[in-house]
Amino acid sequence: MRRPNCAVLFSMLFAAMAASACSPRIGDSCTSSTTCSINGDRVCDLTQPSGACEVFDCQADQCPDDAVCARFSPAEPRLSVVACMRRCSSDGDCRQGDGYRCVDPQTYMDGLFAEVVDVQRPDARFCAAIATTSP
Fold this sequence. Notes:
Shape: globular
Oligomer: single chain
């Protein structure tokens, strides 16, 4: 009886595990951009609590299915940032433990205007880290 080749078995096991692993989604926590995508199509925004996988400079209706393209504009419009953000319908869709909430861009944050630029979902809500202040 012939013994199986261990290298072949290991390769098959590794391929099966890799295929079954979930890819990081927009808004998932991260520690580096390679955590978000080995293809370089997503970056890890380490300015967000526990990091957040995002796509910067998105175009309308070009984000993954679970995300929307949002523009964040501070008082100075030339400093605006456009990024794919995780789409949500309630806080439970977001990383609440890290301080993320499902926000309506029209009432997003003091001093920062946000808008969804997608044509297909202009009224979509998205997950964002909400700063909390101590009393």
